[in-house]
Design brief:
- By secondary structure, this protein is α/β, with parallel strands linked by helices.
- The protein folds into two domains: 127 residues, Aspartate Aminotransferase, domain 1 (Alpha-Beta Complex), CATH 3.90.1150.10; 239 residues, Aspartate Aminotransferase, domain 2 (3-Layer(aba) Sandwich), CATH 3.40.640.10.
- 41% of the residues lie in helices and 14% in strands.
- The chain contains twelve helices and 14 strands.
- The protein has an eight-stranded mixed β-sheet, with helices on both faces. Strands 10-11-14-13 form a four-stranded antiparallel β-sheet.
- Helix 4 runs parallel beside helix 5.
- The radius of gyration is 22 Å and the shape is globular.
- The protein binds pyridoxal-5'-phosphate.
- Keywords: Aminotransferase, Pyridoxal phosphate, Transferase.
- It comes from Peribacillus simplex.
Length: 400
């Protein structure tokens, strides 16, 4: 029998992409009972399982087979209106044709990359950045450049220097800059309003688009920062958003908001790759939910969990360890000078606590060796404190 040479059937793009780390390489299997400070998932107690059960039952009672077709449920256009309304409350006014519902923000990022990138295109990302977005971009181009961030978010003056230099030397300018300006993953930092405006100015001066990932935008401990999309007067911002962090990631509901010509192209390639049943169920859930009240509960819970995590870090981590204190979102970004966090991970897992090593969030993974990302969203307060106590002991012994 002649064996099938599987690889020979892959397209050149896919062959190149398969040389990257596989998706999810950043998190090995976790031992049973492990305290998960790695997981960027919502608090299990805040996932509205009962309410979604009621919503699904009501949907099928009222609409019978309609939500089970490709299209047909009147709730699908209603979900779009509900998201339009949520965006409006954040200062983003989009028409129906300027909004596309996607299977999570991730499908939005993938569609944008698919439509805008080829192997000649340049993309600029923050350093560090959300590793899954990095994986997506790497599937389309090798020409990715990174711009450092600090406590005030993307260093736009460094971006300007880079753009200037590329222009002066005749190099390709980025097609878009990918940013998570609010409660960034992994650093938890938030871009100042001055830098948001500066980034918009640069996008006009150097003719690029801004891909604003707003996955955590409504999860402020205090006031939500202004989305870049809300101050974009030139149609340069494509915003991706999601209900994963505020309702449930398994529902896979996200969106892209942008100029209708872009949306038309994204829609062309999305076709039926989304989930009408989940969309119509979500619409019923939203009809029956006081969302502002829900957001207040989420914010209060995550604020208090974040405070508990930071207190335990102050108590249990050695003096040389430092971190940013976030104003919202799910994450705390930690630096441990002199420790390679990817080497430490196997010991941490053996002690029953997980985190994500910093290297996965960087284009040049060496830049992330001394960092790690902790999440305060998933584990409960008692587990988090115990997890940090164990981590503190490991770090101390690795430093000595
Ligand atoms: C910055 C960022 N964008 C997008 C996503 C994915 O969102 P979704 O579940 O809607 O695909 C995540 C999830 O971790 C994220 O951290």
């Amino acid at each position: 029998m002649v064996e099938v040479k599987v690889e020979s059937f892959f397209s050149e793009n896919i062959k190149a992409a398969l040389k990257n780390d596989p998706p999810g390489a950043w998190m090995p299997d976790l031992p049973d009972g492990c305290i998960r400070l790695s997981s960027g998932y919502p608090d299990p107690a805040l996932v509205p399982a009962e309410e979604l059960k009621v919503a699904v039952a009501r949907l099928l009672d009222e609409e019978q087979d309609l939500p089970l077709h490709y299209l047909g449920s009147p709730r699908i256009p209603r979900l779009k209106q509900q998201i339009q309304k949520r965006l409006e409350e954040r200062g983003i006014c989009v028409l129906e044709e300027q909004l596309l519902i996607t299977s999570g923000a991730c499908q939005g990022i993938d569609l944008i990359a698919r439509v805008l990138l080829d192997d000649k295109a340049v993309v600029a990302v923050e350093s560090p950045t959300y590793m899954e977005a990095l994986e997506v971009f790497q599937n389309y181009t090798k020409r990715i450049i990174s711009i450092p961030i600090d406590e005030q978010g993307l260093q736009t003056y460094r971006l300007k220097e880079m753009l200037n230099e590329r222009k002066r030397t005749g190099q390709t300018l980025p097609r878009f800059v990918y940013t998570i300006p609010t409660f960034q993953n992994p650093t938890g930092t938030t871009m100042t309003i001055e830098r948001r405006k500066h980034l918009l100015e640069l996008s006009i001066e150097y003719d690029f688009l801004i891909l604003e990932d707003d996955a955590y935008g409504e999860l402020s401990f205090d006031k939500n920062p202004v989305p870049i999309k809300s101050i974009d007067t030139c149609g340069r911002v494509l915003q991706v958003g999601s209900l994963s962090k505020v309702v449930a990631p398994g529902m896979r509901i996200g969106w892209i908001a942008g100029e209708s010509e872009f949306i038309k192209a994204f829609e062309w390639f999305k076709k039926d790759l989304d989930h009408p049943f989940a969309q119509s169920s979500m619409a019923v859930y939203l009809e029956n939910t006081d969302f502002e009240k829900r957001l207040d509960l989420l914010k209060d819970t995550y604020r208090s969990k974040c405070t508990a995590l930071i207190h335990s870090m102050e108590q249990f981590l050695p003096e040389s360890v430092s971190w940013y204190v976030p104003d919202g979102g799910y994450f705390v970004w930690v630096r441990i000078p002199g420790v390679d966090t990817s080497q430490l991970l196997s010991q941490a897992l053996a002690e029953g606590v997980s985190y994500v090593p910093g290297k996965y969030f960087f284009l040049d993974q060496n830049d992330g060796a001394e960092f790690l990302r902790l999440s305060f969203s998933f584990a409960n307060e008692k587990e988090m404190i115990e997890g940090i106590r164990r981590l503190g002991q490991l770090i101390a012994s690795s430093l000595s």
